[in-house]
Specification:
single chain; elongated; 82% helix; 143 residues; mainly alpha
Length: 143
C-alpha cells in the first residue's frame, strides 16, 4: 500500500469518528431541548448548538466519509466482498439517521417538534447499534 492510501484511510477514520460524534450527541441535545419551553432562551441556545453540530461537523464528516470510503473501495477493489455490502447497508442506515436528525433539527428550529423525550432517547440508540455493526464487519469480516 502506498503512503497516500494510508493517509486517506486515516482521514476516513477521523471523519467517521466525527460523524458518529454528531449522531450520538444530537439526539441527546434533542432530549434536553424537549424539556424547555419552545420560545425560551434555553431553546434558542439548543437551536444554535444543534445547527452548528449538524452543519459544521456531522454533515461535512458524513460527506468526507462517503467520498473517501467509495474512493478506497474503487482503489483496492473490495466491491465483491459480502462483508462490505453489509457494512454499506449499515452506512446507508447511518446516512438515513443523519437525514432524519436534520429533519428533527429543522422541526425544533421552527418550534414544531412532534416527538417526546423518550422518542429521542430511543433514537439515540440506533447510531450506536449501526456503529457496532460497522466495526464488527470491518474488523472481523464475518463473511
Amino acid at each position: 500500500m502506498d503512503e497516500a492510501y494510508l493517509w486517506i484511510k486515516a482521514v476516513h477514520v477521523i471523519a467517521i469518528i466525527s460523524w458518529m460524534a454528531g449522531l450520538l450527541y444530537l439526539p441527546r441535545l434533542f432530549v434536553y431541548h424537549t424539556q424547555v419551553p419552545a420560545e425560551s432562551a434555553q431553546s434558542a441556545l439548543f437551536k444554535v448548538m444543534e445547527r452548528r453540530l449538524m452543519h459544521a461537523i456531522t454533515i461535512p464528516a458524513a460527506t468526507v466519509s462517503w467520498i473517501l470510503g467509495l474512493w478506497m473501495i474503487s482503489e483496492i477493489g473490495l466491491a465483491g466482498n459480502h462483508w462490505l455490502h453489509a457494512k454499506l447497508m449499515a452506512v446507508v442506515g447511518m446516512t438515513a439517521m443523519t437525514a432524519m436528525m436534520e429533519k428533527w433539527r429543522r422541526d425544533f428550529a421552527a418550534d414544531q417538534n412532534r416527538h417526546a423525550t423518550v422518542f429521542y432517547r430511543f433514537a439515540n440508540e440506533i447510531p450506536t447499534l449501526l456503529m457496532i455493526a460497522v466495526v464488527i464487519l470491518v474488523v472481523v469480516k464475518p463473511f
